[in-house]
Specification:
single chain; about 140 residues; mainly alpha; globular
Length: about 140
């Protein structure tokens, strides 16, 4: 459940950042969406496996993730509607919070769990993930 709560806490600023990316040219940043997917899929799988081990029903688990998806969609809409009327500094601050939330989730939950399972590969895979984000940002202009 801790990872699901963390996903909610980092999902809101991530979704707002996706919504605000629509303000600049009308397209969602591919890099931002890729970063959100790459960080949220392992979070979701890990959290779901933990909930299953805690004997939570499939209905409960799907309900949690469906609720998070709806909340994130609303946050993206709010980001688009509200931030269009705010100075660019607010957009930058929200994007920074989203990036910090992703890093916090990685450091607090995902990396320790990955290290306990994959040991020495955890660091290499983390670096490859950041390298992929860098390559995407340079090749897509995002």
């Amino acid at each position: 459940m801790a990872i699901a709560v963390g996903a909610l806490l980092d999902g809101i600023p991530e979704s707002i950042a996706i919504g605000t990316s629509l303000l600049h040219g009308g397209a969602v940043s591919l890099v931002m969406v890729a970063a959100v997917i790459l960080s949220n899929v392992p979070e979701g799988l890990s959290s779901s496996a933990g909930m299953k081990r805690a004997r939570r029903s499939a209905r409960f688990i799907f309900g949690i993730w469906s609720g998070l998806a709806v909340i994130s969609g609303v946050a993206a809409l709010v980001g688009f509607l509200v931030f269009s009327h705010l100075p660019a500094a607010y957009n930058a601050a929200t994007t920074a919070v989203a990036a910090g939330a992703i890093l916090t989730m990685l450091v607090d939950t995902m990396i320790p769990e990955a290290f306990s399972e994959a040991h020495e590969l955890a660091g290499l895979l983390t670096v490859l993930g950041f390298l992929l984000a860098f390559v995407l940002s340079k090749t897509t202009g995002g």
